[in-house]
Design goal:
This protein is an alpha+beta fold. It has a nine-stranded mixed sheet with strand order 2-3-19-17-21-22-12-13-14. Strands 1-4-6-5-7-9-8 form a seven-stranded mixed sheet, sandwiched between helices. It starts with a helix and ends with a strand. A hairpin with a 5-residue loop joins strand 2 and strand 3. It is globular. Helix 6 packs across helix 13. The protein has 22 helices and 22 strands.
Length: 859
């Protein structure tokens, strides 16, 4: 058998140094073959491969040994160069596949998606400007444009179809555990809903969702105007088609997604059409253009993945992205969550991920989105919607709801998808093959394998030590870089970080293995070490595969690839190598066998850094980005500022004003804070660092969202008082004692479209219930209660109540309530001092600014 002869080869090479009379005894081609096999076998093993590639056969004494060592070194250099060129070629192939957005040009056929028409919609929507919920730009101008275009589409539609339009203005409330947990309340926000169905109607429907609102101060081209533009054109193509639909397609243009998913909640919980929806497609963005990634599906319902895999013309999907996103590592969420949790509907979540550096900034403009990006998104969404709207599976989708899918695309050409239970069987078979291969070596007679077993476990220890010391090294460098104020110095030139941290990680691993070679593996031949470290790499990857299988991760297929392909390749080339050595045929076959593991690894590495690198520049002041990036690089071997002109008023238990001040509150979303800004704006320095008001909720500052735990570096520059034209009005309507010995406080608030409410019970009191969400108060990180409020263009005064359980009466009252008003649109959002400060910022920053007020009361 192959395994027996292989073990014999291992034994021969282990004792080869004792048998040889001298270096000249072995022919030169054989020595070169051994050197090359060490490199190739080691690389094939995966994570540990590079370690064994560093372990070389020591030369004998004398001039003959020196000459042999020189020739061997030359052979190793050629092999290393060849491997580097091989990896470079694979990286080029990955890059070409990513740049190839569509496989053909935009068609002119009326039944196909037309990206040029969608671009016209995109340019019209973004020309309106920033579209925050409650602003005329969002509630009037954008809604008017959408209704106008929908009317034109209805006029041109085929008589086979019927189009219905509804403008919904929902009011509601819900709690969500996003950003540590808070409660959201919305009033009179806007949804534009269109239903395309057969002329005789339909009982079942599929939903397509986008949002036309944007964050403050951004035109929101990618997030999410381009998706709404795509949906308008998809609606046009489907409505003019001569093919009859079996089910309805509902297009939801929602106007309050940036308010933490409010409009989708209003639709799925209140609209009469929501009950007919059996599946949905959500269109989002975490970047500007490029390919749209399927990064969430389900929950369960594997038929949806199969629908995408079989119909998408330009697929780009990854179950790895799904498991990373749902782990909570990325501080973001989409309407997918609302439809899943509140509507119990399965769906597909897609998002553009390229060039996330300008996401949510003033640079997110229509001209930065390639027409080919629009074309591919439109082709994919049209194909999937058409399939779902004519599929019999949609009617009986509950029959196919169980089970998860393993899915991933192959260079954007097609999708491989199979049930996770099938994946588990395949993964277990791969584990068994690896165990049989390794066990065959370990279970040989003791006198044959004693040295091998000892060397294997010593090599495993060396590998682990190399990894650990490599990680510690790059973390020390990252901390040092952060301490000297050079964090994010690589942000504009990502490959600088690769050279800095990647080189340090590789150097440390090389150093550890060089020491091992010099002091432990003194008499071992190169081919023997290649065998040992190949087996170590196989063992490590097999261990990670077992762990992923045990954890139920669909991503386990990656480890399976790094076990199966090296093992198969080794079996295929082992006999040829023994007979002919490391000749061209052997090398070509071996590298061909490792093509898929290396190619997919490079593909995934690109996706990881494409998503995570921009996020690190806006992750707040508490997460050191260099430490995170150094850790990722070790595993893989713009300033964005926001500031507010605010006036704060603090009232005591009797309603008297005890403190009142005004200033410009500055938050640096960049880990480096404002150190890069101080040279341009000297008044912003550490002497004006904001001081936390310990007795006030969230330190007495008007947080728009409860991200205070991420951003603890902020500054407070004194300024004159602001007087908005629409001031906030907040009052206590009633106070009553309940039969169960609690105090019920009813409040009324009115003000701008965006307000934040903060509640802190005093010592001896607890907040037992309230009229918001599902009635159970949800705390944010730190123990305070946060409520996010928004309304559309017109809304009545907001009334709500809270109930406080008083266990021990305190002189300062039982509860503190504060309300912040945020002015995102119109003249109220500006002040002369705020405008003057913005002018001082350098061009390479994106300052997002608005006026707000903060009022605190004790009861």
């Amino acid at each position: 058998m192959e395994w027996v002869s292989e073990s014999a080869a291992v034994r021969r090479h282990r004792v080869g140094g004792e048998r040889r009379d001298g270096p000249a005894a072995a022919p030169q081609p054989e020595r070169e073959a051994r050197a090359l096999e060490t490199l190739v076998d080691a690389r094939g093993g995966g994570g540990s491969g590079s370690s064994s590639a560093r372990t070389r056969k020591r030369s004998g004494a004398g001039s003959g040994g020196a000459s042999g060592a020189a020739r061997t070194g030359l052979s190793e250099a050629r092999a290393a160069l060849g491997l580097a060129l091989y990896l470079l070629a694979l990286r080029t192939l990955v890059q070409l596949s990513l740049q190839q957005l569509v496989l053909y040009g935009a068609p002119d056929h009326p039944r196909e998606f037309n990206a040029r028409q969608a671009r016209d919609h995109l340019e019209h929507i973004t020309s309106i400007g920033p579209r925050t919920t409650g602003s005329p730009e969002n509630e009037i101008l954008t809604v008017h444009y959408l209704l106008e275009q929908i009317k034109l589409i209805e006029v041109q539609s085929n008589s086979l179809h019927k189009i219905s339009v509804d403008v919904q203005r929902p009011t509601g409330s819900f709690s969500i555990d996003f950003l540590g947990g808070f409660t959201s309340y919305y009033d009179n926000i806007t949804n534009v809903v269109v239903k395309l169905e057969p002329r005789d109607g339909a009982q079942h429907a599929v939903l397509a969702n986008c949002h036309f609102d944007s964050v403050a101060n951004s035109p929101g081209a990618s997030d999410d105007a381009v998706s709404c533009s795509v949906m308008l054109e998809v609606l046009h193509v489907l409505s003019t088609s001569s093919e009859a639909l079996h089910h309805a397609v509902i297009f939801l243009f929602n106007g309050a997604e940036e308010n933490v998913l409010q409009a989708s909640h209003g639709f799925i919980t209140q609209h009469s059409w929501a009950n007919s929806i059996r599946a949905f497609i959500n269109l989002e963005a975490a970047g500007v253009g490029g390919k749209e990634l399927v990064f969430q599906t389900g929950p369960e319902n594997p038929w949806l993945v199969q629908a995408y895999a079989s119909t998408a013309k330009h697929p780009f999907a990854s179950v790895v992205a799904q498991e990373v996103f749902q782990s909570g590592i990325i501080p973001s969420d989409t309407d997918f969550r609302i439809y899943r949790d509140f509507g119990n509907i399965p769906g597909i979540d897609l998002a553009f991920i390229e060039n996330g550096y300008i996401y949510h900034t003033k640079y997110d403009t229509a001209d930065r989105i390639l027409t080919d990006s629009i074309q591919r998104a439109g082709d994919n969404i049209l194909a999937v919607l058409k399939y779902l709207a004519t599929s019999d599976v949609l009617v009986s989708s509950s029959k196919y709801r169980h089970g998860n899918m393993v899915f991933f695309d192959v260079l954007g050409l097609f999708v491989i998808a199979y049930p996770s239970r099938v994946g588990s069987i395949i993964n277990c078979m791969v584990v068994m093959a690896a165990v049989l291969y390794l066990g065959k070596k370990w279970l040989q007679p003791k006198h044959n394998t004693a040295n091998y077993t000892k060397d294997f476990f010593c090599g495993l220890g060396i590998t682990v030590i190399g990894w650990f010391t490599s990680l510690v090294t790059v973390l020390i460098i990252a901390v040092f870089i952060s301490l000297i104020g050079q964090s994010l110095s690589w942000y504009n030139h990502f490959y600088v970080s690769v050279c800095l941290y990647g080189t340090a990680a590789a150097a440390k691993i090389i150093f550890i293995h060089t020491l091992a070679k010099r002091f432990y593996y003194v008499n071992a031949s190169d081919q023997y070490l290649g065998e040992v470290f190949f087996d170590i790499a196989l063992f490590v990857n097999c261990g990670s595969l077992i762990a992923l299988i045990y954890g139920g991760f669909c991503s386990a297929f990656i480890s399976a690839v790094w076990v199966a392909f090296p093992l198969l390749t080794k079996f295929c080339v082992h006999k040829d190598f023994k007979q002919h050595g490391a000749r061209g045929k052997f090398i070509a076959f071996y590298l061909l066998g490792m093509f898929i593991p290396y190619l997919y690894a490079l593909y995934l590495i690109w996706a990881v850094f494409e998503m995570f690198t921009p996020i690190l520049g806006r992750s707040g002041s508490e997460i050191p980005p260099d430490v995170v990036l150094a850790s990722i690089l070790a595993g893989c071997t713009m300033i964005l500022s926001s500031y507010f002109h605010m006036t704060r008023t603090f009232h005591d238990l009797d309603g008297k004003v005890v403190k009142r001040d005004s200033g410009i509150w500055i938050n640096g979303f960049d880990y480096t804070g404002m150190s890069h800004i101080t040279p341009y704006v000297p008044e912003i320095n550490d002497t004006i660092r904001a001081r936390c008001e310990e007795k006030a909720p969230l330190c007495g500052f008007p947080w728009y969202l409860p991200v205070h735990f991420l951003i603890r570096k902020n500054w407070y520059l004194p300024a004159s008082e602001v007087s908005p034209g629409e001031p906030v009005h907040f009052r206590l309507i009633s106070k009553e004692q309940t039969p169960w010995d609690s105090v019920k406080l009813t409040f009324e608030a009115s003000g701008p479209s965006h307000m934040s409410l903060y509640v802190r019970p005093h010592k001896g009191s607890t907040l037992s219930q309230w009229s918001l969400g599902n009635g159970t108060p949800v705390t944010s990180k730190g123990g305070d209660y946060f409520v996010f409020y928004s309304h559309g263009l017109q809304a009545s005064a907001w009334q709500f109540w809270i109930e406080v359980q008083v266990l021990e009466e305190q002189p300062e009252g039982v509860v503190t309530v504060a309300i912040a008003a945020h002015y995102f649109s119109g003249e109220d959002k500006r002040s002369s001092q705020l405008d003057a400060l913005k002018e001082k910022f350098p061009d390479w920053t994106f300052p997002s600014a608005w006026v707000c007020t903060y009022d605190l009361y004790a009861f």
